[in-house]
Amino acid sequence: MKLPKFLLADNSEFPEDLFVVHTEYPRFILNVEEEDVEWLDDLEGDDEETVANEATKVVEEAFKWCDEELAKYDDEEDEE
After folding, report:
1. Taking 70 as the threshold, does the pLDDT of residue 80 lie above it?
2. Which of 16, 18, 23, 77 could make an S-S bridge to 3, C-beta 3.0–4.6 Å?
3. Which domain of life is it from (predicted)?
4. Are 69 and 8 in contact (CB under 8 A)?
């Protein structure tokens, strides 16, 4: 099964929070409201600085994707 790179998620136990799930390596769950990341994969690599830069890049990409996705929801509501 092919999965999207990012998924939006919520949970009734955390009603104020919104999550982005990154399904590719390195997999993680981002709590958008708390700006907290839970890594599901071990971040490995020879150069720790490169690994840290790549991790930062993909988290920033997740925030950007989330903003764009939420804007789409807002646009749909405005059309109704």
Report:
1. no
2. 23
3. Bacteria
4. yes
CB atoms within 10 A of CB 6: 20
What's the pLDDT at 18? 97
- Lookup result for tokens 């700006």: 35
Closest-CA residue to 22 (of 74, 64, 72, 50): 64
pLDDT of residue 43: 83
Tokens, residue 44:
């490995």
Query: How far is Cα 41 from Cα 10, in angstroms, rounded to an integer?
Result: 21
Alpha-helix runs per DSSP H in 1-80: 48-79
